C-alpha cells in the first residue's frame, strides 16, 4: 500500500511543476482511484528564505504530498537558506526545485532535503550540539585568527566566541582528548593567547574563551611569519604539542585580508611544511568578495571541503558543528 501511494504521489504534479504538466490528467485519474490520504498543511513559500521563521505562509498540500524542507548553500558566499514547500515524492527524493527559481536562487547547492508528514513539520530541527566519542577526537588544534579591526565590535566577538564554545562543547577536552591553542595575527606579530596544554579541561577552556579578546589592531598580515610560527612555536612540545596526536590547524581570515606581498616569498616551502604538520588544515574566510590574498590562503587548506566561507562574523556561531566534523574526522 505504501509503495503504491508513493508511486501515485510521484505522479501528482504541483501546479507550478510545469515540466510534469502533461501527466496531470493521468495523475488526477489515478488520484480518484486511490484512497484519500490526509492532506497535510505545510509551510510553503515560493522563494527561499535566510531565516526559516521568515516563511510563515502555509498551504494545504495536494494529497500524497509531504512537507518539504530544502537547505541550500550559496556557492558565492557560503550562507545557507531554506526552501519550504509541499513536496512530491519526487521532490523529497532530491528532485528538481518545485518552483522556477528566481535570480537570487542561482548559485545554490543543496545541502539537505528532508520531508515529513505532520502538519507544519517542515522547519529545521532546533540546533543540537554534536557530541562525539571522547576517543574519537584526540587532536591538537591550533587556531590562528586574523586580528581585524572589525573584531572591536562586541557582537562579532560574541559570534567568534560562540563558534569556539560550540566546538569545545562538542568534544572531550583533555590530555586524553582534544586540546586547543589560540593566537591572533597582528600584522607581522603573532599574539599568542595560550598553549595547547594550558587549559586541559572543558570548563577552564570555555572560560578562557569567554575572557579572550583580540585587540583589533589589525595590520597587513605576514603569511610567512604566520606559517613559520605554526611550525616553530605553536606545534612544538614546549607549547604542549603531543607527538603522537594528529594536529589540526584552523586559519581564520577576512575575505578582504591584505597580506604583505614580500611575505608570500616563504610561501611555497611553508605550504609543504604545513602539509607535513597537519592533515587537516581548515581555512575560514569571513566576508563576501574574496580578494586575491584570501584566495591564496584558501589554497593552503587541505582541500576545498576544508574551506568554510561565511558572509560575516555573525554567521560564525553557526559553523561549530561543521568544524567539529572536519576536526574530528
Ligand atoms: C510573516 O513574515 C513576514 C516577513 O518576515 C513578517 O513581516 C510578518 O510579520 C510575518 N507574519 C506573521 C503573522 O508572523
Ligand atoms: C612587509 O614585510 C617586509 C619584510 O619583512 C617588511 O620590511 C615590511 O615592513 C612589511 N610591510 C608591511 C606593510 O608590514
Ligand atoms: C620567513 O620567516 C622566517 C621566520 O621569521 C624567516 O627566517 C625567513 O627569512 C622568512 N622567509 C622569507 C622568504 O621571508
Ligand atoms: C620555491 O620557489 C622558489 C622561487 O620561485 C624556487 O626556486 C624553489 O624551488 C621553490 N621551492 C619549492 C620547494 O617548490
Ligand atoms: C570589516 O570592516 C570593513 C570596514 O568597516 C567592512 O567594509 C567589512 O565588510 C568588514 N568585514 C567583515 C568581514 O565584517
Ligand atoms: C545563525 O544562527 C542564528 C541563530 O540560530 C540565526 O539567527 C542567524 O540568522 C544565523 N546566521 C546565518 C548567517 O546563518
Bound molecules: 2-acetamido-2-deoxy-beta-D-glucopyranose
- Beta percentage is 15-25%
**What kind of oligomer do you see?**
single chain
The first-level CATH class name of the largest domain: Alpha Beta
Quote the CATH topology of the largest domain: Rossmann fold
What would you say this structure looks like, in words?
The protein has 329 residues and is of the alpha/beta class. It has 2 domains: 115 residues, no CATH class; 195 residues, Rossmann fold, CATH 3.40.50.410. 27% of the residues lie in helices and 22% in strands. It is built from 9 helices and 11 strands. The protein has a 6-stranded mixed beta sheet with strand order 8-7-6-9-10-11, sandwiched between helices. It has a 3-stranded antiparallel beta sheet with strand order 4-3-5. It has a two-stranded antiparallel ribbon with strand order 1-2. β10, α8 and β11 form a beta-alpha-beta unit. The longest helix has 17 residues. The chain is elongated, with a radius of gyration of 24 Å. The N terminus is likely disordered. The structure holds 2-acetamido-2-deoxy-beta-D-glucopyranose (NAG) (6 copies). The site of one 2-acetamido-2-deoxy-beta-D-glucopyranose has 6 residues, from loops. The site of one 2-acetamido-2-deoxy-beta-D-glucopyranose has 5 residues, from α6.
